[in-house]
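Colleagues,

For the teaching module next term, I've prepared a clean inverse folding example: a structure given as tokens, and then the sequence designed for it. I'd like students to try predicting residues themselves before seeing the answer, so please don't circulate the second half yet.
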């Protein structure tokens, strides 16, 4: 593989690593993205709640040039129609058409746009109106936006009307003028019809007419009620006269002592067969009553015989049953007495009186019914007479309405008979999509607001994280540190738990000296092995970090003991002369140390050999940091520090 190909692969791999690392950063700092999304959501909600609602009304016009000989009614735009459609687009949005449209609007609608001046309104409309021709068609699409919901469709309709008027005036001929006159006349007639219809309905409601036709005439409910009452009254009067005649004939026969059987036969038709038989004691109801009583009497006698077999005559049950039988026998005897005279073989006088009483009762009932019907008929007649003028007015209004409708039909026939295309020219404009009042605003849209909130929140959150990540030079994981430095990770040491032996001073408190069989000790031994086996020069090791407290003292002391346990002679030099952690560990702060060697004038080897001593029982030599100098960085860059390292290389 060529060098430039390797470089490209390395560059691609590096870019992928950076992308993966940045994704990890985004995940670790996801709270920022969530915060920006929440903030953008609140801003978006505030905008959606307070932004002015913009409504849009749409309409489509079909433009057909009837003056062309070839395919004059084509609905698709040809090559020759492109220029014409562009012209029509400009005409729709021209100031002349818009000014004409503003004059067609009512004053309250014009006031919504802040002016009554047609020129100012035309300028306002031109900013809110967009007209475009649909590709490969003869259709024009009009879009008008406004903060007034109801006014959008009204303005579009006015613009269409003004445009059609302009085109008609441009291509008008004699036939069109005639049609215009007829159309205007028809509109006037339509208005009159509307007024007359309202008047007709008002009069009909006042009269209470139900529109019921009988024999070609209107039959009003009050009139029909009076007629029905009159018919019922006549029938009642006939019935009353028959009853009165029968009653008078019977009473005269009784007074004269004549044979009343012929009179009874004559009045049978007046009373009715059933009533007459009842009065004679021969009715079905009387027969059924007698049969029922006789049946009950037989049952009670049988029960009395049974009781007498077990009880004496003075027993309460026997006495009660005997009394009941006597009562029923008395009732039957009385029934026979009452019914026998009513038979044809009985007393004719008693029968005649009974029939006379029945006739008298029916006669009184008929007279009361006749009196009530007479009063009701008089009231209905008075109400019907009062309707005469109202019904006449209803007929007049209905006649006028029919005449106006005939006039309208005549005008329609005349319009249809006119040859509109007699001059063979003009442009026909047809509205194929009527403008309607928009139900929902086109701005602000909830979907677009949500999309903007998500986009803005994610973009701002990612941007903030990118800036923070660019300014932040810390490594949050071994992998991130390895990717940044492009160096392998030797080992990972976990957090060392606090032990009781760490409370003292000296290397005796170091973890490796006290515990050598746990994971942390194994990690230090792993570092030692990797350094010994992986590099050629592993005799001199520098432990450093970017910030204080990163663990330099812990690493250097434990790693030194790990080397000592492997049989190595080890020297630790505390070169952190500002905050010497190792010197503090062995309790040598403020004493002679590295700073004195670097600032001294004696031989480095003599001073170093005198200061490199073992502290405590741990066989590791330490040179403390010494007293704090004003310029520790310059001392470390001097020649004496190099001589010190050379001496240490020879001794250890």
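(Answer key — instructors only)
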């Amino acid at each position: 593989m060529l060098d430039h190909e390797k470089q490209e692969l390395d560059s691609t791999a590096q870019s992928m690593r950076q992308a993966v690392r940045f994704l990890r950063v985004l995940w670790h700092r996801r709270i920022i993205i969530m915060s920006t999304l929440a903030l953008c959501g609140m801003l978006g909600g505030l905008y959606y709640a307070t932004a002015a609602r913009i409504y849009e009304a749409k309409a489509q016009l079909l433009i057909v040039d009837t003056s062309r000989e070839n395919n004059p009614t084509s609905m698709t735009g040809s090559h020759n129609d492109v220029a014409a459609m562009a012209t029509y687009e400009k005409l729709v949005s021209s100031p002349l058409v818009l000014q004409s449209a503003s004059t067609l609007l009512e004053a309250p609608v014009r006031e919504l746009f802040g002016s009554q001046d047609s020129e100012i309104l035309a300028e306002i409309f031109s900013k809110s109106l967009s007209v475009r021709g649909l590709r490969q068609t003869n259709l024009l699409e009009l879009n008008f936006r406004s903060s007034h919901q109801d006014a959008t469709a009204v303005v579009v309709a006015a613009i269409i009307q003004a445009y059609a008027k302009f085109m008609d005036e441009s291509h008008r001929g004699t036939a069109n003028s005639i049609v215009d006159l007829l159309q205007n006349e028809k509109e006037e007639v339509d208005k009159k019809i509307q007024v007359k219809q309202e008047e007709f309905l008002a009069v009909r409601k006042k009269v209470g007419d139900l529109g019921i036709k009988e024999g070609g005439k209107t039959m009003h409910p009050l009139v029909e009620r009076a007629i029905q009452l009159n018919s019922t009254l006549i029938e009642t009067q006939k019935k009353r006269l028959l009853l009165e005649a029968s009653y008078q004939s019977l009473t005269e026969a009784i007074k004269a002592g004549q044979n009343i059987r012929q009179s009874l036969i004559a009045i049978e038709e007046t009373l009715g067969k059933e009533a007459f038989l009842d009065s004679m004691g021969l009715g079905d109801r009387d027969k059924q009553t007698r049969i029922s009583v006789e049946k009950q009497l037989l049952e009670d006698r049988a029960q009395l015989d049974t009781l007498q077999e077990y009880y004496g005559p003075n027993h309460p049950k026997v006495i009660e049953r005997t009394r009941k039988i006597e009562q029923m026998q008395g009732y039957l005897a009385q029934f026979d007495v009452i019914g026998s005279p009513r038979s044809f073989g009985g007393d004719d006088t008693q029968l005649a009186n009974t029939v006379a009483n029945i006739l008298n009762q029916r006669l009184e009932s008929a007279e009361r019914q006749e009196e009530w019907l007479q009063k009701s008929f008089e009231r209905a007649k008075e109400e019907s007479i009062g309707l005469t003028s109202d019904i006449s007015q209803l007929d007049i209004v209905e006649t006028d309405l029919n005449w106006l409708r005939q006039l309208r039909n005549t005008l329609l026939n005349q319009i249809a008979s006119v040859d509109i295309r007699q001059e063979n020219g003009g442009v026909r404009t047809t509205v194929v999509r009527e403008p309607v009042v928009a139900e929902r605003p086109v701005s602000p849209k909830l979907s677009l607001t949500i999309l903007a909130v998500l986009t803005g929140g994610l973009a701002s959150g990612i941007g903030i994280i990118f800036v923070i990540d660019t300014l932040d030079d810390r490594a949050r994981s071994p992998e991130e540190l390895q990717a940044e430095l492009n160096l392998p990770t030797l080992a990972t040491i976990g957090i060392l738990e606090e032990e009781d032996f760490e409370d003292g001073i000296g290397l005796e408190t170091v973890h490796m000296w006290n515990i050598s069989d746990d994971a942390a000790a194994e990690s230090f031994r792993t570092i030692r092995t990797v350094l010994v086996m992986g590099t050629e020069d592993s005799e001199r090791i520098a432990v450093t970090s970017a910030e204080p407290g990163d663990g330099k003292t812990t690493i250097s002391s434990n790693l030194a003991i790990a080397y000592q346990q492997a049989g190595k002679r080890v020297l630790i030099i505390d070169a952190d002369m500002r905050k010497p952690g190792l010197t503090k560990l062995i309790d040598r702060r403020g004493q002679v140390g590295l700073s004195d060697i670097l600032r001294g004038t004696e031989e480095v080897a003599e001073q170093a050999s005198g200061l490199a001593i073992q502290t405590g029982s741990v066989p590791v030599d330490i040179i403390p940091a010494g007293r704090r100098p004003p310029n520790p960085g310059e001392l470390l860059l001097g020649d004496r520090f190099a001589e010190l390292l050379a001496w240490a290389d020879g001794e250890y």
